[in-house]
Design brief:
The protein has 31 helices and 36 strands. The chain is an alpha/beta fold.
């Protein structure tokens, strides 16, 4: 018996009744059925009214089990301009006919074709799908390539990837004994789907999703759908799914994958499988979202619309400054073959590796990796602490054409796991501890162990070989063909100071251009030697052609670097260059009294001290120059996405004097800097300009700017919306002699009724007070009406014991700041980022201040 189709009840949140229509069409068996469809074209019309004389196309949206077309209401409410949106309730689901017999995957694909014919869905079509709507929509797409303009997939799969298992909920629900109870007799399966969402969906939305499935008779297809998941090779729908999966490899239309990372049903394993089949696809992973990504991250709907709107211009090349022709990053290793002087010195292990040995090991391991099956463009995560093994593995991977995934332990274990899983490495090279961490963090990929291990240990670690085994395998083999400038080279990660760490993709040409910029800016030559207290920077030593050393310190806590450890590293290579974060240098200065004259003597040979990662106070630079009497102190400005951007010396900072923000100097050669002016609500929506005094988002163009954000399509589109330029997320201005001043992060701008306030200038003014050790300026309240709140760390315990600053300190702060200060609060210390221990987390400070001023228990920021 067929339960007939009907219209949804009125009053469902977010659903316009005008979208609903009942459509008669012929199903896969030639039987006339009635489907419920949501259609932005309007009830009773088969086509959308033309926009500017023509309809651009149709978004064909297909839901999975156990949702219905309600899932796509956000897209119907905000379609891309000129595009029609059609969302179909599958037979047995939503408010369409409910036939008596269950339907297979093949039938559902042909059912969809019948509906699109009845709706006159002609011309360009972009399929949009979720869950098991993915294989159904892709099956339709493969049969209608002549009109297919693109595919969009959200949390779905076309195959259970090797090495993974179906989620326990699905496996249990498919057992005959439980399927009827879980899926049909009770609403457990229906309700579980919306229960996965974080944050929790509103009750009326959860009820709307469950609305079509109010009793067992209306949930029969929910159980049938679960039974039709082809987990076994002899399943009735397995052959159809295999055809869809195979056909996907030849589908060369634009593709977008929007992914909820916390989905227990379709995990990153399924995302990586889809990317292996659709390597050209754009991807955006939403870290906080679960199974219903468009519900958990409504911004995904906006991203989808922008992607569709971009279809007609996606193939246009964006201008990028022409880079010079540079040698490969490993060129110095080949040039210094036979050189027995140290190339890498690791102080923690008291180990030195010569240029000759490093070059040979790189060539051998590269050849061994290729012989072991590593393919050009595959990703290799490196879970090895700074030192000789990490340097060797890095350059061997580059020489083999691999893309290295470098996520340093300074991110913290949780963020490190998220970063690595998101990058989806094909291989993992790690120490015993690194490989154990990879297993704990659920990072997939073939394992290679660094260090020396016997076969039993390798089996325990899950490693197929060690680096020494690969070196032996590669002996006598020619190295793989050299990667080219356009080939991807590395995925590195931002610090996560203003959100989850973002993967940043570089190509070989961009890394070579960056090395050239560093050489040119700091006159780095073959007689220089480097000590890098910031581990990622130490890896550039061989590429710059100079010996490098890493001090014996905890790389996850830069502020623990002591003067003694730094002096030992300088002495080990007779260093002329030192690179360290501001927090590391502060502790070096604080512990310098422990150095005797003999130990401090090598510091006089240092010609240049570089510090970056956060604003550096002139007072700290002066103390550094006292410790390194022959050195010039410079602070390069840049970020993970582009370094260096600008550069300034201590003398130039003193010459610039006080201003609204930190003076980071003039742009280095080959870098263009512009500013996009801030609007009254803090949005950087002004045109790019180099006009002095305009405060806005800092935008950068250079040959060494990153290629893109990794699997963050929407973020990349926003940061690159001015073609050829990278929007840094920093705010600042250029002065009348071309110097760049940084005023903070765009997300930290205070939007008061009197206008926007950038935080760094306020903080600098407050920190000049003798009773203040550190300060953070934050906004509390709604955008456009925020109150400026200054949180201070007092000197010598002034005002401690209360979160409210005493009257005298409050008056002093208000007297030092030009803008109106609503409140002055006190903390013992400001929260900072994990990587540099230097960037103040103003977002956490603002949340804490909001709790204080609202009279709630403040707790810790």
């Amino acid at each position: 018996m067929v339960t007939p189709a009907s219209l949804p009840p009125p009053g469902l949140p977010g659903l316009d009744p005008a979208w609903s229509r009942l459509v008669e069409a012929v199903d896969a068996e030639g039987v006339r059925r009635t489907w419920h469809v949501l259609d932005s074209g309007g009830a009773g019309r088969g086509t959308l009214d033309p926009v500017d004389g023509s309809t651009l196309g149709t978004l064909l949206c297909v839901h999975g089990n156990p949702t219905w077309s309600y899932l796509w209401r956000g897209l119907l409410a905000h379609p891309p301009a000129g595009w029609r949106v059609v969302a179909v309730d599958q037979l047995g689901m939503g408010f369409s006919d409910r036939p008596a017999q269950p339907r297979t995957l093949d039938q559902r694909i042909r059912d969809l074709a019948g509906v699109t014919d009845a709706l006159a869905v002609h011309g360009r079509v972009v399929t949009v799908a979720h869950d098991w709507g993915g294989p159904i929509s892709l099956g339709w797409a493969l049969e209608h390539r002549e009109r297919l303009a693109g595919v969009v997939l959200t949390n779905t799969a076309v195959q259970q990837p090797a090495g993974s298992v179906a989620p326990a909920l699905i496996r249990l629900a498919r057992t005959p004994a439980l399927r009827h109870t879980v899926c049909v007799r009770t609403p457990a399966f229906v309700r579980a789907t919306t229960a996965l969402s974080r944050p929790t969906l509103p009750a009326d939305v959860r009820d709307a999703f469950a609305g079509p499935y109010g009793d067992a008779s209306r949930r029969r297809a929910v159980g049938d759908f679960v039974a039709d998941i082809p987990l076994e090779p002899d399943h009735r729908s397995a052959a159809t799914l295999d055809l869809v999966a195979a056909g996907l490899r030849g589908l060369d239309v634009p593709a977008l994958l929007l992914w909820g990372v916390r989905d227990p049903v379709f995990s990153d394993v399924h995302l990586h499988d889809l990317l292996e089949r659709l390597p050209h696809a754009d991807v955006h992973r939403y870290e906080g979202a679960s199974h219903l990504v468009t519900e958990d991250a409504p911004e995904a709907v906006e991203a989808l619309g922008r992607w569709v709107a971009d279809l007609d211009r996606r193939h246009r090349e964006e201008p990028r400054p022409e880079g010079e022709s540079h040698p490969p990053v490993w060129a110095a290793l080949e040039e210094r073959a036979g050189d027995l002087s140290p190339a890498v010195v690791e102080l923690s292990g008291r180990r030195a590796v010569s240029w000759d040995l490093l070059g040979r090991r790189v060539r051998e391991i590269a050849a061994g990796l290729a012989a072991s099956g590593l393919r050009r463009g595959q990703r290799v995560a490196l879970l090895v602490p700074p030192g000789a093994d990490l340097t060797t593995a890095l350059y061997a991977c580059w020489r083999a054409g691999a893309v290295v995934v470098v996520a340093d332990a300074g991110l913290g274990l949780r963020a490190l796991g998220r970063a690595l899983r998101g990058a989806g490495p094909d291989w993992v090279i790690g120490t015993r501890e690194g490989l154990a961490a990879a297993r704990a963090m659920r990072v997939l990929g073939r394992r290679i162990a660094s260090g020396h291990h016997d076969r039993a240990t390798l089996r325990v670690l899950g490693a197929s070989a060690g680096l020494a085994d690969l070196a032996r395998l590669g002996q006598g083999r020619p190295p793989p063909p050299e990667p080219r400038d356009p080939d991807e080279c590395a995925v590195v990660f931002t610090s996560g100071a203003t959100g989850p760490p973002k993967g940043v993709v570089y190509r070989h040409g961009q890394v070579r251009a960056q090395l050239a910029a560093l050489r040119r800016t700091y006159a780095i030559g073959p007689d220089d030697r480097l000590v890098a207290a910031f581990a990622p920077f130490a890896l550039y030593g061989p590429a710059l052609g100079i010996a490098s050393a890493v001090p014996a310190t905890d790389v996850t806590a830069p502020a623990t670097l002591t003067a003694e450890a730094l002096a030992d590293a300088v002495a080990a290579v007779d260093a002329t260059l030192v690179f360290a974060s501001p927090s590391a240098l502060r502790n070096v200065v604080a512990t310098a009294g422990a150095l005797d004259s003999l130990r401090s003597k090598p510091l006089a040979g240092v010609r240049l001290v570089l510090s970056a990662g956060a604003p550096v106070r002139p007072g700290l630079l002066r103390s550094v120059c006292d410790l390194f009497p022959s050195a010039e102190a410079r602070t390069p400005y840049g970020m993970t996405e582009a370094l260096p951007v600008a550069d300034v010396s201590l003398g130039q900072v003193e010459e610039a004097g006080d201003g609204d923000g930190v003076c980071v100097g003039r742009p280095v050669a080959g870098v263009d800097v512009r500013v996009s002016a801030l609007g009254p609500l803090g949005a950087a929506d002004g045109p790019l300009t180099a006009h002095p005094g305009v405060v806005g988002e800092i935008c950068v163009r250079a040959a060494h700017v990153k290629d893109r954000y990794d699997r963050l399509w929407a973020t990349e589109r926003e940061s690159g919306r001015d073609r050829g330029w990278h929007r840094t997320g920093d705010v600042g201005h250029l002065d009348d002699v071309g110097r760049l001043w940084v005023g903070g992060r765009l997300g930290h701008v205070v939007t008061s009724a009197a206008g926007v306030v950038t935080p760094v200038g306020v903080e600098q003014a407050v920190e000049r007070l003798p009773e203040v050790s550190a300060a953070a300026a934050v906004g509390v309240g709604p955008t456009g009406a925020q109150q400026l709140v200054v949180v201070v760390v007092p000197q010598d315990g002034v005002g401690r014991g209360s979160v409210l600053a005493p009257d005298g300190l409050t008056a002093a702060v208000r007297g030092a700041v030009v803008a109106d200060v609503a409140a002055v609060l006190v903390l013992h210390e400001l929260p900072v980022d994990i990587r540099h221990n230097a960037k103040v987390d103003r977002t956490r400070v603002a949340r804490w201040a909001d709790r204080v001023l609202a009279g709630r228990r403040p707790g810790r920021p």
